[in-house]
Design a protein that fits this description.
By secondary structure, the chain is mostly helical. It has one domain (4-53). The protein has helices at residues 4-28, 36-53. Helix 1 (4-28) packs antiparallel against helix 2. The chain is elongated and about 40 Å long.
Length: 54
């Protein structure tokens, strides 16, 4: 079983990956594609990571 800190670090890594994915897709996509949902998902994940550690 992973410690709470290890699980938090894994979750934060996923948040960083989502933000990198957003930046990559945004750079390649046209303005017709709304990629803001990726950022919204990363915000939800970071709140979840903080909540699970408390």
């Amino acid at each position: 079983m992973q410690s709470a800190l290890d699980q938090f670090r894994i979750s934060i890594g996923r948040v960083r990956d989502l933000i990198a994915l957003h930046n990559s897709v945004k750079a390649q996509a046209t303005s017709a594609l709304d990629v803001s949902d990726i950022l919204r998902a990363s915000l939800v994940l970071v709140v979840s990571a903080l909540d699970s550690g408390v």
